[in-house]
């Protein structure tokens, strides 16, 4: 455990008080005292249909006030294992300059990497994973990817653009940010007008686990396959909320029926403990399409599960 545990003084206050931060954590201005940073990326400028994920970070912060410290299954306390803080949102000066906005995200995460901070990010549409990886991985070489989603997000172009929320992981392969042979895509489903994304993922060497395979094999076997593919090297985790069935997460831009339950999602994430995770994101929560904060509440709960994974990975790296 760290000698300087996370400041949890806000946990003793009523949940409806104070300025909302992720999980009621301190808002950090001094990054030198942070091991894991929670970050909002309020950007949805690359969606194909329903916008609204730009509001995701703010609502996820609000619902994450429900977070408590100790995991009820593992008894692990991530806040005792690492110094964790809210780093605020990526700030934009070129929001309507498409490539410029992505560059600003990448620049922010390059600073995060230089500070030695492990990021847990809240989107935002799934486009943000690409600039996050640009900043986080840089020229260090490709990393593994565990990608939980209803869609492969490996199209080539849409409406003339190579950069939108259906293309980030094709671009990430092309840019040498992820290793397709260490990439697993879990929960893929739903009809498409063209098989381009499925075909590219499989042809490039990614392991695509369609939802039907997940159901047939079960969560435990799915986890085992994900761990086999990712291996022991550095790995990034990305979780699209539309991997869940819309009965559990209606507030998202591209809902697909037949997805995970919340319990299955928890089991899946908990099974990834032990992977060498260098960062993670949870994306596509769209509050304007939500009902009674169902999706943002689920998203905040899953962010806690992911935080436990990141803190565990960090602790293992420290102790060897």
Chart the SSEs and their pairings.
Blueprint: E1 36-41, H1 56-63, H2 78-81, E2 84-89, H3 98-114, E3 118-123, H4 129-137, E4 143-148, H5 168-174, E5 178-188, H6 196-204, E6 207-210, H7 211-217, H8 219-230, E7 235-240, H9 262-270, E8 277-283, H10 294-319
Parallel strand pairs: 1-2, 1-3, 3-8, 4-5, 4-7, 5-6, 7-8
Helix pairs in contact: 1-10, 3-4, 4-5, 7-8, 8-9, 9-10
- What distance separates the N and C termini? 13 Å
State the CATH architecture.
3-Layer(aba) Sandwich
Helix run count: 10
Assigned CATH superfamily = Ureohydrolase domain
User: How would a crystallographer describe the biggest sheet?
Assistant: 8 strands, parallel
Strand order of the largest sheet: 2-1-3-8-7-4-5-6
Strand element count: 8
Rg result: 18 Å
* CATH topology assignment: Arginase, Chain A
How big a fraction of the residues is strand? 15-25%
What's the average pLDDT? 95
Write down the secondary-structure element order.
EHHEHEHEHEHEHHEHEH
Number of self-contained structural domains: 1
Spans of at least 5 consecutive residues whose pLDDT stays below 50 are none
CATH class: Alpha Beta
Helical content class: 25-40%
**Overall outline:** globular
Which class of secondary structure composition applies to the elements?
alpha/beta
Structural summary, described in words:
- It is a single chain.
- With 320 residues, the protein is α/β, with parallel strands linked by helices.
- It has one domain (9-319): Ureohydrolase domain (Arginase, Chain A), CATH 3.40.800.10.
- The protein is built from ten helices and eight strands.
- It has helices at residues 56-63, 78-81, 98-114, 129-137, 168-174, 196-204, 211-217, 219-230, 262-270, 294-319, and strands at 36-41, 84-89, 118-123, 143-148, 178-188, 207-210, 235-240, 277-283.
- It has an eight-stranded parallel beta sheet, with helices on both faces.
- Helix 1 (56-63) crosses helix 10, helix 3 runs parallel beside helix 4 and helix 4 runs parallel beside helix 5.
- The model has no long low-confidence stretch (mean pLDDT 95).
């Amino acid at each position: 455990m760290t000698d300087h545990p996370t400041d949890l003084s806000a946990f003793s206050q009523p949940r409806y008080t104070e300025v909302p931060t992720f999980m009621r954590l301190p808002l950090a201005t001094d990054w030198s005292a942070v091991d894991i940073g929670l970050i909002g990326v309020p950007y949805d400028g690359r969606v194909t249909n329903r916008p609204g994920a730009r509001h995701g970070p703010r609502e996820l912060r609000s619902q994450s006030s429900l977070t408590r410290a100790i995991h009820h299954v593992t008894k692990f306390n991530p806040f005792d294992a690492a110094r964790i803080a809210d780093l605020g949102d990526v700030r934009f000066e070129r929001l309507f300059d498409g490539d410029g906005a992505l560059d600003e995200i990448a620049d922010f995460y390059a600073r995060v990497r230089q500070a030695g901070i492990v990021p847990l990010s809240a989107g935002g549409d799934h486009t943000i994973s690409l600039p996050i990886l640009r900043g986080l991985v840089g020229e260090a070489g490709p990393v593994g990817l565990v990608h939980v989603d209803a869609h492969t997000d490996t199209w080539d172009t849409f409406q003339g653009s190579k950069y939108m929320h259906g293309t980030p992981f094709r671009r990430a392969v092309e840019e040498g940010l992820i290793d397709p042979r260490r990439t697993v895509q879990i929960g893929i489903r739903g009809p498409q007008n063209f098989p381009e994304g499925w075909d590219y993922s499989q042809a490039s060497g990614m392991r695509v686990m369609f939802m039907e395979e997940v159901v047939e094999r079960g969560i435990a076997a799915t986890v085992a396959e994900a761990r086999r593919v990712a291996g022991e090297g550095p790995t990034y985790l990305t979780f699209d909320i539309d991997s869940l069935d819309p009965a559990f997460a209606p507030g998202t831009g591209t809902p697909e029926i037949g997805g995970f339950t919340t319990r299955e999602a928890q089991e899946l994430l908990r099974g990834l403990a032990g992977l060498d995770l260098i960062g993670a994101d949870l994306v596509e929560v769209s509050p304007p399409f939500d009902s009674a904060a169902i999706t943002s509440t689920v998203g905040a709960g899953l962010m806690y599960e992911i935080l436990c994974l990141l803190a565990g990975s960090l602790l293992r790296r420290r102790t060897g």
